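Researcher: I need the complex structure. Ligand is 5-O-phosphono-beta-D-ribofuranosylamine. Inputs:
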Amino acid sequence: MKIGVLASGGGTNLQSLIDHWRKGTLAPAELTVVGANVATAFALERAAAAGIPTFVLSHKTFAAREEFDRALAAELRARGVELVVLAGFMRVLTPAFLAAFPHRVVNIHPALLPSFPGTHAQKQALDYGVKLTGCTVHFVDTGTDTGPIIAQTAVPLLPDDDEEDLRERILAEEHRLLPAVVRAIAAGKVTVEGRRVRVAGADAPADARLRSL
Ligand code: GRF
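Model: Output:
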């Protein structure tokens, strides 16, 4: 299955996908292209270093959100992309994009959704005072972090944590969860019925309290 990754920033999740791909542990998924909406995204350099084709499509050059979305979908389609992975892609996608990839767009979010959607999820968790937070991989719908949940991992929030401590602890789990989900989708193990997503073979996780995959 050909994967297109979209990013806007540093791209540590992209790096983890690249590392798995190189080791052969992302198969049957393969990284086909990396796209960014900002030319300075470090994710582009990570992709180039790994020999993965890249493109930049700036949303600022489009008058309407839908026009950007249609152009973005066309770019990915033209490159044969079958699954789109949002790895720190800071744009909400409209039906103009999603219609081109039904149930084929996933996002990773640094909280246990539906808690703390949107930006600054780690700060939201700290401010709320929760004892557990984590990360979620979900299918993308037209809302902000509202699509059907595929997998989650819980992460403790420790008394002296600041935002950066928490960000790093969650990222470590993101780097494990996202490749696992991409691999499972590519292997045809993921089915969706309404909001319920089933991942075949994930019925008996190692630690059912903390992990759904
Ligand atoms: C991650 O925390 C991800 O959950 C969120 O954006 C961040 C991207 O980090 N959607 P990176 O660019 O992969 O390092």
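Model: Summary of the prediction. The chain is about 35% helix and 25% strand.
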